Amino acid sequence: MRIGELSRATGVSAKTIRYYEDVGLLIAPPRRDNNYRDYGDNDVATLKFIHRARNLGFAIKDVAQLVALWRDKDRASADVKAFATRHIAEVEVRIAELQSIRDTLATLAARCHGDDRPDCPILDDLQDPMAG
Amino acid sequence: MRIGELSRATGVSAKTIRYYEDVGLLIAPPRRDNNYRDYGDNDVATLKFIHRARNLGFAIKDVAQLVALWRDKDRASADVKAFATRHIAEVEVRIAELQSIRDTLATLAARCHGDDRPDCPILDDLQDPMAG
DNA sequence: CCTTGACCTTCCATCGGCTGGAAGTCCTAT
DNA sequence: ATAGGACTTCCAGCCGATGGAAGGTCAAGG
Questions:
Q1: Which nt has its C1' nearest the CA of A61?
Q2: Which tens digits make up the pLDDT trace of A106-116?
Q3: What is the C-alpha to C-alpha distance for residues B16 and B39, in angstroms, rounded to an integer?
Q4: Is A11 left (phi over 0), alpha (psi -120 to 50) or beta?
Q5: Mind listing the pLDDT tens digit for each residue in B56-97?
Q6: Is the minimum CB–CB distance between A120 and chain B shorter than 8 Å?
Q7: Does B9 touch chain A (CB under 8 A)?
């Protein structure tokens, strides 16, 4: 199949498919006489795998490793689990950061009158978090 | 003061200070005879404000607006509050996305034996999330 | 006087992960 | 013949820095 069909089958844009090939995440497929890329059914499965891994927040480098593990029928599940566990920890750090940001902003917004007076704890705190 | 001292006083690298000037977030300071940037105490306060706003996840464009509001002694606090509230909503969306990712990964990791057998629900799910 | 080293200057390149657009080719339908 | 769509390549840009090259400036020490 051509790149457009692969795109429709996976939900990944043709632009992005070419990009993935460029950065070594997808193996360059054979070309037809007209130089069009020619994909097979395997490529649909691989690209769906990649797409889902990206949606789960794995970086492209990590996805490349995951694809390698996925292709290796003899890998130990422990390797994959360790990989996922590390990533979970990273995601949790990011969540905690964002929650801290949200809590700070929510506290400030709650203390802000929100009327047409100029006094504003939000800006005051941005200026000097230790005051007030 | 020179850029190095401003950097030390605010925790923002000299590189980043020049970058902020470049993108219009900081006003270009006067230069000394030797062409070195010459900052004053005001700049410490402004850059600290910017630093903190960035840490709270505001984009540079938004920080520029916040600085403008901060400088405008007559602005209505409602304007700032609306600004912050919009941003809180965005942060919460991002938190929800990450939590969904974490939950999915945690579920998969829990179902994975994590031994030296090749069977691995994590990879299976990445391949076909609807199965099993 | 000269060197060392810390500091400053500019400019250009790189990261991640695409996305947009230009310019050209290929194929089908009318 | 021509219009359109899908494909090709390559180059530019987004955000928010960061790294490094190549050079100017200054004070202290040998």
A1: C16
A2: 999 999 999 99
A3: 15
A4: left
A5: 999 999 999 999 999 998 999 999 999 999 999 999 999 999
A6: yes
A7: no
